[in-house]
Amino acid sequence: MNAKTTIRRILFIAVWLCIGGGMFTLLLAAISSKKNGQCRDYVITLKGPENNFFINEKDVEELLAKANNGAIRGKAVESFNLNALEQMLEKNAWISKAELYFDNRDVLHVTVTGKEPVARVFTVAGNSFYLDNEGRRMPLSDKLSARVPVFTGFPEKKVLSAKDSVLLDEVRAAAACINNNPFWLAQIAQIDITPDRKFEMIPVAGNHLVRLGDGADMPAKFNRLMIFYRQVLSKTGLDKYKLIDVQYNGQVVASRYAGDPKVDSVQLRKNVEKLLKQSMEAAADTVVKKLSPVVKLEPDSSSVKNEALPDERTSNPEVQTNPDPGLGNSTPSAPKNADGQAVSKTAKKDDKPQQTEKRTDSKKPRQKVPKAVMPKKPEADENGGYN
Q: How much is the pLDDT for 312?
C-alpha cells in the first residue's frame, strides 16, 4: 500500500511539473516573439464633440511618426514607449486624453479624446482664444471655427491671477448653460464682461440688454429670464423693454430705458427746470413799446377828385375808400392802418410803422365804415313844382 501511494504522488507531481514547464515555455516564446515582433498596423480613434474636432487622424499620425523618428508600420514593438507617447499626445493643445496599446496581432491602437471648446473669449486688446469644458485655454485653429458663445472684455494678461482664474470659471459655467439650451445658443449674440467683472447679454432678436450679474447661479438666472420671455415679452414684444435685470434672486427688473432709470429721471427734471427758468427770464426781458402817433392831415377838397379813387384802392387794396361803388359823389374815407388809425395819403408806400420787439396785445379788429346814405329825392306837388 505504501509503495502504490508513493508512486501516485510521484506521478501527480510529475504531471504538474510538465504542465508548469509547458506554460513557462509558452510564456517565454510569447515574450520572445513580442520582442522580436514588428508593428503590423495602427488604428486611430477620435473621441469628443461631434462637430468641434480641432485635430484629425492625420495630425495624430504625424505626431506619432515624429516621436518615433520615422514610420510606424514595420517598426519593432519593443521600440514603442507607450507611456511616453501618451504624455506627448496629451501635451497637445487640442488633445485632452490619449491611450495606446498593442493587441496580440501587433496592431497599435491609439485612442485620442479631443478637447471640447465651450466658449470663445476676446480680450480687451482684441486677442482671442477658446475655453474648453475644463476651464483651460485653447488656441485658435485654422481648420475649424467652433460655434460657441462669445464673451468679450476679458482682461489682457499673460499670467492669470486668482481673480482671473475665477472669472474664467464663471465664463465656463455661463457657457455651459448656453450650450445646453438650443434656444439660448441661437438667441445670444455675445456676452460682455464689464470692468467690474459682471456679465451683460446682447440678444440676437430684440433691442434690449440683459444684465446677468456675476457668474454665480447662472442656471437660475437663465431660468428667470426664460420665464420673463414666455410670460411678458411673448405678449408685449421683444423691443418694449430696453433693460432686463435678472441678477437679483427671485425677481426680474425690467425698464424701458437703456441706462439707469434713476439717472434718466433726474436729468429729465433738470431739463424741465432749465426750460422753466429760461421762459421766466424771457418774460421778464419783454419790452412793450407803443406806436408813435400818426399825424392826421386836413383833407383838401380841391385835391380830392373822383378820378383818384381807383388809384387809392389800387395802391392800398386792404382799405376800401368807397364801400359802395355805386356812389360816385360820396366822400372817400381816409385809409387806415392795421390798428385802425388814419394815415396820410402823402405817405410813401414803403414807409412802415415802427415795429415792436414783442406784441403783447392782440390785433385790433378793423373798424367798420358806415355806408353813405342817399339823399331823399323831393316829391312833386300838385302844381308840378318841387318842395
A: 41
For the chain, give every domain's residue range: 35-114, 117-255, 291-351
Whether residue 40 contacts residue 104, with contact meaning beta carbons closer than 8 Å, is answered with: no
The fold of 117-255 is Rossmann fold (3.40.50)
CB 44 within 8 A of CB 7: no
Q: Is-contact 245 252, C-beta < 8 A?
A: yes
Query: Quick one: residue 80, left, alpha or beta (phi over 0 = left, psi -120 to 50 = alpha)?
Result: beta
User: Are domains 35-114 and 117-255 of this chain identical in fold?
Assistant: no
Q: What is the pLDDT of residues 124-157, one digit of tens each?
A: 999 999 998 888 888 888 877 888 999 999 998 8
pLDDT over 90 at 224, yes or no: yes
pLDDT of residue 279: 64
At the second CATH level, the architecture of 35-114 is Roll (3.10)
Rounded to a whole number of angstroms, the CA Rg of the chain reads: 53
pLDDT at 291 over 50: no
Q: All 3 cell numbers of residue 340?
A: 385802425
